[in-house]
């Protein structure tokens, strides 16, 4: 397993590296002193996990996660502050480890990581490379159950998918049911010619776009037909969006 340590304190990075030497199957392949450096490293190296400090100069760990729309590995927060624990799990962090880090507590995190990665491999063995036959077409019908309500809906009727932690909210007609699935897992099954990942929280049906406007920091904002939802396309994804829809 490959790891990147993101912490503005060099001594803290060195101490965590020393502790991780007790786990030969984990290799620290990079270090970053801030989130700007971290983003470039993650895109280049695609680690399995990042050990992320919260309080850093510039963006905090939470602020960076909210904005980041690139490849995201498992996240283990390492911090001296215990008041952020609830928020950490709201953003789907794998674990939250307090400094000074004890070897026994780190061992628990490593065990969680091993279990999580093993489950991913079993559940999504095709995740590394998804070939077209895995995609559901826009004409395929899916069964959706939310509480006591059930729907059998064609995918071309779904205009928007929104991440809600471990759930995804599907928007079609006047309905907004929740399904127990991550947005990443859903993205793996959807046809990329029809469904586009606008940002970390949203996938949009390209056929429902009604209006496109320039937005902040080089991004775009699209308005969807139906209920008029306005969805921001991040700056990074805007480049892909323009390439996808250009002649």
What brief labels describe this structure?
single chain; 247 residues; alpha/beta; Rossmann fold; OB fold (Dihydrolipoamide Acetyltransferase, E2P); 5-stranded parallel beta sheet; 15 strands
Nutshell version of this structure?
By secondary structure, this protein is of the alpha/beta class. The chain is 30% helix and 30% strand.
Plain-language structure description:
The chain is built from seven helices and 15 strands. It has 247 residues and is of the alpha/beta class. It folds into two domains: 2-123, Rossmann fold (3-Layer(aba) Sandwich), CATH 3.40.50; 132-245, LytTr DNA-binding domain (OB fold (Dihydrolipoamide Acetyltransferase, E2P)), CATH 2.40.50. The strands form four sheets. It has a five-stranded parallel sheet, with helices on both faces. It has a five-stranded antiparallel sheet with strand order 10-9-8-12-11, with helices on one face.
Summarize the SSE layout with pairings.
Elements: E1 2-6, H1 10-20, E2 27-32, H2 35-45, E3 49-52, H3 61-67, E4 74-79, H4 85-90, E5 95-98, H5 103-123, E6 141-146, E7 149-154, E8 158-164, E9 167-172, E10 178-179, H6 183-189, E11 195-197, E12 202-205, E13 209-214, E14 220-224, E15 230-233, H7 235-245
Parallel strand pairs: 1-2, 1-3, 3-4, 4-5
Antiparallel strand pairs: 6-7, 8-9, 8-12, 9-10, 11-12, 13-14, 14-15
CATH level-4 homologous superfamily of the largest domain: Response regulator
Second rung of CATH, namely the architecture of the largest domain: 3-Layer(aba) Sandwich
What number of domains? 2
Strand content: 25-35%
Structure summary, number of beta strands: 15
Overall geometry: globular
List SSEs in N-to-C order: EHEHEHEHEHEEEEEHEEEEEH
- Assigned CATH class of the largest domain: Alpha Beta
Poorly predicted parts: 123-133
Pfam families: LytTR, Response_reg
Protein name: Chemotaxis response regulator protein-glutamate methylesterase
GO molecular function, one term: phosphorelay response regulator activity
InterPro entries: CheY-like_superfamily, LytR-like, LytTR_DNA-bd_dom, Sig_transdc_resp-reg_receiver
């Amino acid at each position: 397993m490959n790891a990147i340590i993101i912490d503005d304190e060099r001594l803290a990075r060195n101490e965590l590296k020393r502790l991780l030497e007790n786990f030969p199957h984990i290799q620290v392949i990079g270090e970053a002193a801030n989130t700007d450096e971290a983003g470039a490293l993650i895109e280049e190296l695609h680690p399995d996990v990042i050990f992320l400090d919260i309080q850093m100069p510039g963006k905090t760990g939470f602020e960076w996660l909210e904005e980041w729309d690139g490849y995201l590995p498992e996240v283990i927060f390492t911090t001296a502050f215990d008041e952020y624990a609830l928020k950490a799990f709201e953003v789907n962090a794998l674990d939250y480890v307090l400094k000074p880090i004890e070897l026994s507590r780190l061992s628990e995190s490593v065990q969680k990581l091993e279990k999580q990665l093993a489950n991913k491999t079993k559940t999504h063995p095709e995740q590394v490379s998804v070939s077209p036959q895995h995609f559901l077409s826009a004409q395929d019908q899916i069964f959706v159950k939310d509480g006591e309500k059930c729907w059998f809906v064609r995918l071309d009727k779904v205009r928007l998918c929104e991440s809600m932690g471990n759930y995804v909210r599907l928007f079609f007609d006047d309905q907004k049911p929740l399904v127990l699935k991550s947005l990443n897992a859903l993205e793996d099954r959807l046809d990329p010619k029809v469904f586009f990942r606008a940002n970390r929280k949203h996938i949009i049906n390209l056929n429902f776009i009604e209006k496109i406007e320039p937005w902040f920091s080089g991004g775009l904002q699209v308005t969807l037909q139906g209920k008029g939802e306005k969805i921001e396309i991040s700056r990074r994804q805007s480049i892909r969006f323009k390439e996808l829809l250009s002649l």
